[in-house]
Design goal:
The complex is a heterodimer.
Chain A: E1 13-19, E2 22-27, H1 33-44, E3 56-60, E4 69-73, H2 76-84, E5 91-96, H3 103-109, H4 114-123, H5 126-129, E6 134-138, H6 147-154, E7 157-161, H7 168-174, H8 187-191, H9 194-217, E8 218-219, E9 222-223, H10 225-253, H11 262-281, H12 287-307, H13 317-348
Parallel strand pairs in A: 4-5, 6-7
Antiparallel strand pairs in A: 1-2, 3-5, 8-9
Chain B: E1 14-15, H1 25-29, E2 35-38, E3 41-44, H2 55-59, E4 65-66, H3 74-86
Antiparallel strand pairs in B: 1-4, 2-3
The chains are: A alpha/beta, B alpha+beta.
Chain lengths: 352, 95
């Protein structure tokens, strides 16, 4: 009865309940196969930038006028975390339009914000739907949502809920405790981010292939295709190892790597991977070529390690800018040293 | 997060205890437990844990706590630099 020409009902909607503000979709509180496949596509980076749910009002269980109202972002991974944590609960879900961005990033950018929350409350007629005047907003939405301002503008009192949706049942039953208010960054939480980190390197990697190929073939006879084909793989190997060291090893080993600054952490994994590569190739490269691949691998790993700052929940903008002013000049120097050493090796011979 | 720490002495966080009314909103929203209530006033108990997210300042009723909020993301900062140099938006960072 809720079918309309030209519209499709989302697979996670089980049915609709009739309310004072019209029919509200009720969503499933456990993942389907289709949810899981879509999560994998988003986590791999393929669909991460285009994975929204339609903003508006949803519900779980059998909510009444006293049921809690929980706000979320219209990024489907955020929405899924919320509904899957609410098995057995009754509640209203108010999904804000954050342009498909998660709560934390949207709060920082001002889309998960006071204005949008107030607009959503009004747009779905929340004051007619529920008898109480309370909104539960994720704690990580606080950089964008001012509880005082929301109260002033629409009469609803904001209660900041836990950081992790998984803590919601405990929060709804007993309120907040200290543990659910503190951000974490466990091995599992870091590992799940690696595919996107790798995905973001695909385009730059392919853009680098032609310059690397030209560099590999450069020599006394200007350019040699045969040399390019023979030596190119050495440079490509160093590039791939640098990517692995920066985008896989830095996230995994994050708390174990020395240094507070991320470009230093990447420098260390880069030196380790590049050094091992040089050792394994030792018969096939000259000293200058060895220095070149080590520098190249380290420059890439340091840069990618530095970029991982944006993915963590414990870096500050002042700190990141501080470390960038130190890391970037070194990364550029290393990359230039790599090119110079490689060309020296090619033009002056000395290849073993 | 006591186990993972970032660079010390960089945060722009400041608290004016004269203005603080001890409502505890900053304590609730801080994701790194940087502020805590000490008697009837908030106090900074872990300055170096601050990530400048701005949650505390955004929810302070008396403007007692201040911070320059932003994103601790190198890709985003590079995009900002590039866009400033170019005079228009040509990079968007990653999220």
């Amino acid at each position: 009865m809720h079918e309309r020409a030209g519209y499709a009902i989302c697979h996670y909607v089980t049915d609709f309940i009739e309310t004072a503000v019209g029919p509200v979709p009720r969503v499933a509180t456990s993942p389907t196969l289709s949810d899981r496949l879509q999560t994998m596509a988003a986590r791999s980076g393929l669909s991460r930038d285009n994975y929204p749910v339609t903003p508006g009002l949803y519900c779980v269980g059998n909510p009444d006028r006293d049921a809690p109202v929980l706000a979320s972002a219209n990024f489907k991974l955020s929405f899924d975390h919320l509904r899957w944590s609410l098995a057995g609960e009754d509640g209203w879900l108010l999904v804000l339009d954050t342009r498909g961005i998660n709560v934390w990033c949207a709060a920082g950018k001002g889309t998960f914000a006071t204005e949008e929350l107030v607009r959503s409350v009004r747009a779905c007629g929340l004051e007619k739907l529920v008898g109480h005047r309370q909104l539960i907003v994720p704690q990580l939405g606080a950089p964008g949502v001012s509880g005082l301002q929301v109260k002033k503008e629409c009469g609803f009192k904001v209660t900041f809920g836990p950081i992790r949706a998984a803590d919601l049942p405990k929060f709804l039953a007993k309120g907040a405790d200290e543990e659910m208010r503190e951000a974490t960054f466990s091995l599992g939480e870091r590992a799940v981010l690696i595919p996107v980190e790798l995905y973001l390197t695909i385009k730059p990697f392919f853009l680098a292939l032609l310059p690397l190929f030209l560099l590999a073939g450069a020599g006394p006879g200007f350019f040699s295709l045969a040399t390019a084909l023979e030596r190119g793989p050495v440079l490509i190997g160093a590039t791939l190892l640098g990517i692995g060291a920066g985008a896989i090893l830095v996230p995994l080993l994050l708390p174990l790597l020395p240094g507070r600054q991320f470009w230093i952490k990447g420098l260390i994994t880069g030196l380790g991977s590049g050094g091992l590569y040089w050792y394994l190739l030792s018969g096939g490269v000259s000293l200058a070529e060895g220095v070149a691949i080590l520098s190249w691998c380290t420059a890439i790993a340091s840069y990618l390690g530095m970029n991982f700052t944006g993915t963590t929940p414990f870096t500050s903008p002042s700190g990141v800018e501080y470390e960038m002013r130190r890391g970037i000049p070194l990364q550029i120097s290393l990359a230039m040293a790599a090119v110079v050493c490689w060309l020296l090796a090619s033009f002056l011979g000395g290849r073993s | 997060m006591k186990k993972m720490r970032y660079i010390n002495e960089r945060a722009s966080l400041a608290l004016d205890q004269e203005r603080c009314i001890g409502c505890g909103r900053c304590v609730t929203v801080c994701p790194h437990r940087v502020v805590a209530l000490e008697g009837d006033k908030a106090g900074i108990v872990d300055f170096n844990g601050c990530i400048e997210c701005g949650a505390c300042a955004n929810n302070c009723p008396t403007l007692a706590i201040s911070v320059t909020p932003g994103t601790g993301c190198a890709a985003y900062i590079i995009a900002e630099w590039v866009n400033k140099l170019a005079g228009r938006k040509i990079m968007s960072g990653c999220c």
